Amino acid sequence: MIRAFLAVELSEDLRQQIALVQRDLQARLGGEPSKAVRIAWVQSSSIHLTMRFLGDTDEQLLDLMREAMATIRRSHPTIQIPIDRLQAFPNLRQPRVLWVGPSEQWLKSDAAKQLTALHREIESCCRSLGFVTEDKPFTPHLTVARIKAGEREVGQRLAQSGACDRALSVGVIIVGPLVLMQSKLRPTGPVYTKLWEVE
Fold it and tell me: In terms of pTM, does the model score above 0.85?
């Protein structure tokens, strides 16, 4: 068994722009150091668009999945997702995850519908291979930080800084090749290894 997920990789330029956003956020959220607040910043080299988290995966399924994903990928156009806002899960008042992603307006576009259709087919394929169905709606996002402690305080600092009120212009994710990543959990954070890619 391996821990795995399906993803879209980012361009080097986009990674660099996200690193700038993270540095700006660190400065805005800095303020007085507080023992109650712990934020884990995701290394920009590890950031990707997760299309489907698989969890523990039987290695015998990998070739079957690769063939299925190649077929799915061929039947969908390349999609561009503009990254222009900062948001949080579950909400901005008590954030657990800070992320950057497309605007609400983009989420109503034809391109967003194409992305939803692609995700639906990936989900259907995973279900047919025995993976548990994901109930959550798909929200395209790139995780930039995880709040380990002090969510309420981070929420207050976010509100005071106005970081979420301004539009960002970070770049664009090109949803082209799909990759299968292996994730090994380490005390310093997960280590990702690309196992295969389908154009």
Answer: yes
